[in-house]
TrEMBL record:
<comment type="similarity">
    <text>Belongs to the class-III pyridoxal-phosphate-dependent aminotransferase family. HemL subfamily.</text>
</comment>
<keyword id="KW-0413">Isomerase</keyword>
<keyword id="KW-0627">Porphyrin biosynthesis</keyword>
<dbReference type="InterPro" id="IPR005814">
    <property type="entry name" value="Aminotrans_3"/>
</dbReference>
<dbReference type="InterPro" id="IPR015424">
    <property type="entry name" value="PyrdxlP-dep_Trfase"/>
</dbReference>
<comment type="pathway">
    <text>Porphyrin-containing compound metabolism; protoporphyrin-IX biosynthesis; 5-aminolevulinate from L-glutamyl-tRNA(Glu): step 2/2.</text>
</comment>
<protein>
    <recommendedName>
        <fullName>Glutamate-1-semialdehyde 2,1-aminomutase</fullName>
        <ecNumber>5.4.3.8</ecNumber>
    </recommendedName>
</protein>
<dbReference type="Pfam" id="PF00202">
    <property type="entry name" value="Aminotran_3"/>
</dbReference>
<comment type="subunit">
    <text>Homodimer.</text>
</comment>
<keyword id="KW-0963">Cytoplasm</keyword>
<dbReference type="GO" id="GO:0042286">
    <property type="term" value="F:glutamate-1-semialdehyde 2,1-aminomutase activity"/>
</dbReference>
<keyword id="KW-0663">Pyridoxal phosphate</keyword>
<dbReference type="InterPro" id="IPR049704">
    <property type="entry name" value="Aminotrans_3_PPA_site"/>
</dbReference>
<dbReference type="InterPro" id="IPR015421">
    <property type="entry name" value="PyrdxlP-dep_Trfase_major"/>
</dbReference>
<feature type="modified residue" description="N6-(pyridoxal phosphate)lysine">
    <location>
        <position position="269"/>
    </location>
</feature>
<dbReference type="InterPro" id="IPR015422">
    <property type="entry name" value="PyrdxlP-dep_Trfase_small"/>
</dbReference>
<dbReference type="InterPro" id="IPR004639">
    <property type="entry name" value="4pyrrol_synth_GluAld_NH2Trfase"/>
</dbReference>
Amino acid sequence: PLNRETSKHLYEKAQDVIVGGVNSPSRSFKAVGGGAPVFMERGEGAHFYDVDGNRYIDYLAAYGPLIHGHGNKHIADAITQAAQSGVLYGTPTKLEIDFATMLRDAIPSLEKVRFVNSGTEAVMTTIRVARAYTGRNKIMKFAGCYHGHSDLVLVAAGSGPSTLGIPDSAGIPQAIANDMITIPFNDLTAFEDALKKWGAETAAILVEPIVGNFGIVRPDPGFLEGVNELAHRYGALVIYDEVITAFRFHYGGAQDLLGVKPDMTALGKIIGGGLPIGAYGGRIDIMEKVAPLGPAYQAGTMAGNPASIAAGIACIQELQHEGTYERLDNYGAQLEAALLQAAARHGHTVTLNRVGGAFALYFLDHEVRNYDDAQAADGEKFARFFHLLLDEGVLLAPSKYEAWFVSTAHTQADIDFTIDVINRVFAQL
Ligand code: PMP
């Protein structure tokens, strides 16, 4: 095993001053048997280095944003230039117009946009605006989909809380949770049944068009079209949470890849190039409910700050190079083949879901179409697999159904290295 003494030591110190030693619970190793998480010191391309000097190939991508890996020069230059020009003005800037225009060109359903600071804020605000627009209170979502940590959406959430076995959070009044209705993904019948009961009170349905929070789960053919049709029949809006999915599989939203159009969209992660950001947008008649034009209030001291916007523009520009998504898909396909072959060779039953350079490996004997399927994956075996990979210098998210993300910084040599590691790890598993 790699020597991680300094990480262990820092974890002790961190626990003394930071609650749980981490600033986001999914960073703890609770779901993979506990112990000290790895404390990173430096990143470079597809690699990062921990405080003990060990090198890891990064498939975590900071839970999504780092589609260009660490220290991308174009993004770093943009951030440096923004920092040297003063990091914050509290006034509008031209850069915000440039970025909003780029996003609308890439995702045409964003007729009007507003920048915020996180995916949580983006989703939280789409809910407020949908309620303001419809005059209704109830919201529907799909089980296991994580939409940030605001009160209403932290019900049957996926990636963080449920992995840790906490389906709900304490501190959320029951009266708020009562306004959230949770439905299994890929189940139009359940959605229609819920609408028959609560449709007249429902403001919106929140949808990850390709699920990114219990692995990677595609919608069944016709599912998203059905969601749109049914929601609109009952006068409810359709909100896509593309915080993970936008620009991940395709230049634009998953909505553009799949040819479906929501009323509103929430964005985050990749569009900040590694700095904090969120954005939401959608139909003009809905977005005009937002202050200062309309009665739905939303604000932010840091919203649209020049550093995040400059990083975001640079990140999206870097995705415009010819062949970017083909390369991510090619590397994803190589890793998929290697994982499936190694698992079969050593007698492990697995399911793998992949879209382009993002995929999830489940230790499971059936396909994953919804959260119940993903939850049935063998967490104990995943934990052993995770630690074997880690000790060979391959880092993933410490969760049995979190996605692996390939970045544009990965090279064929990184993929070859990873495939060797995969073969050795399955032999030991
Ligand atoms: N929506 C989705 C789909 C997410 O994956 C996340 C974060 N994992 C969020 C919202 C919340 O974003 P943030 O962590 O930036 O608040």
